[in-house]
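Record 1 of the preview.
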Amino acid sequence: MYMALKHLHMTFAGLSIGLFVLRGIWMFADSPRLNAKLTRIVPHVVDTVLLASAVGLMFVIHQYPFAQGWLTAKLLGLVLYIVLGTIALKRGSTKTIRGIAFFAAVAVFVWIFMTATMRMPWLLPV
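->
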C-alpha cells in the first residue's frame, strides 16, 4: 500500500507542477488556452488526487503535520505555493507581479520536493 500511494503521490506532484508551468507559459503568452474549460478543471482533479494521496501516505506511515517537522514544513510550503500560484495565474495585477509570483511558486515547489525527499524541514541537519 505504501509504495502504491508514494508512486501515485509522486506522479501527481509531477503532473501538478507540469500543469502549473504550462499554465504559467500560457499566462506569459496571453494564450486563450488559459481560459479553456479543461485548463480550469484538470489541475483541480490532479491536485485533489495529489492531496488525497498525501493524506493516505500520512496515515500509512503514521507521521503527521505538527508532530513531524518536515511534514509541518511541507504543509506550510503548500499553503505558500497555493497563494503564490493564485497570484501568478489569476490575482496578480500586472504581468510583472504575476511573473515574480510564478517563479517564487516554482521555487517553493522545489523546496517542498527537497523537504519531502530529505525529510528535513529546513534542508539542514538539526
